[in-house]
Predict the 3D structure of the following.
Amino acid sequence: MLVNLYIENIAVIEKSNINFKEGLNILTGETGAGKSIVIDAISAILGHRTSKEIIRTGCEKAFVSAEFENINAQTVRKLSELGYDFKDDTLIISREINSNGKTTCRINSRPATVSVLKETGLNLINIHGQHESYELFSPETHIDYIDSTGSYAELKEIYKKEYRFLKKLEKQLDGLNIDETKRLQEIDLLSYQVNELEEANIEIGEEESLIEERMILQNSEKLTLNLQKALLYAEGDSEIEGAVSSVDNLCTAINKCADLNPNLKELSEKLNDVYYNLQDCVSEVSDALDDIDSDSYRLNDVEERLDLLYRLKRKYGSNEEEMLEFLKKAKQKLNELTELDINKENLEKEYNSQFSKTMRIAEELTENRKKAGKRFVANVQKQLKFLDMPNVSFTVSYEQTPLSLNGQDKMELLVSANLGEEPKPVAKIASGGELSRIMLAIKTVLAENDIIDTLIFDEIDAGISGSAAQKVGLKLKEVSLTRQVLCVTHQAQIAALANEHLFIKKETKDNKTYTNIEILDYEGRKHELARIIDGVNITDTALAHAEQLLKNN
């Protein structure tokens, strides 16, 4: 539940630290004192849209933070999914709004986004204001009321999973429904491409190898001449002593010296290594000379092959890997197109089977909704009777729709305001006061299955007075027995039921407006109830009436 709210530089509130308790917390004050600003501040914490216009005049930024205790398990799980862990049972959410439009959010001192605040807030607080009553004017929201009281949430998730798979199959089928002429043209093109690449018999690394071979073939005469010279200098002839023979003579002389001077043994070994390495080099030169191919026909073959690879690269990829990947995909697509009829037939069978399965689950969901709708209407009717609306009757109209992510159902709540009248949509029947009580009745029924710990009602008593206001207050009190309730009200009958009464007062000082919030004691509550009853000039009669209300409650 919400235990503390700190507000700084929001509208007329310069600084305020508000503590809330369990049960029914009532907020009262004169019109324009800032009651709605407190609700706006809480909305900001819950990730609702806000504006820099909320910042107090003359200030650069506004700040609000909220502290929660005894967090419900679903909120803890959601925070864990979002990467936020906390050791104790305290949650602190803060939000700073800057005049440049930027917002800084934190959860237990760790950075967060507005969307994270919104996800977290879904299970923390539910705010119901006058404007929210108009949700009843939107029939598409009615089915959500009924679903939230039903015990088929798991079935609903199963249906959504099956429906998404059905739409996936439908999309695949749509992809197969192509023009026959276009299909044949694509088959013809792909066949040509596949044949051309397969006949080329491309191998990875082939082009690089061919370029090297071409260079050798183009320079075979120069290579032969220079390799022959190298052998001459290494092996010698009748006129020239070769390097091998010279090194051999050098090694023989040093070896003899090493026999006489041990210090030359290491040098002798080095020269011997040089001699053997030189022999190896001569052997490699000889092999290279033997390998030279001066066949002009081979050079022509290499040039033609490289030219083919160049032309294929321009069409299918910049290297062998890309061309082979193109071939793989082209063959796959060609296979799909040539076997389209078979694939389409198999996919249609799978789609029809999935449609039947999805429809069965949708029908089961419909039956559950109809049962839940009857229970929901009966429970709301019971609440309305308590709220001095015994002649108002509720029914649920049902209409089957094409399958969608939410099933095949359109359900709308219809209201008959007086006995004997046909049920009609809420927008055509309810007055402002009736609308508030209907919404309170619905909220009361929803709260029975709701895990949210804190409910906020912003002037839900609009348009009612007397006995109806008293009944609304008692209903709020009843709801507050199992969860925390915050209520902004202008009705003394409701305010008298508070466990905690907060008075919001507006003052002017140095040509500036300030809002202060204080917790009222018994005498303070009595005078505030008298003010609500009588206005500015409080009479003894109003004070007596206020005291009687407090004693009665």
Q: What stands out?
A: The mean pLDDT is 86. The longest helix spans residues 340-386.
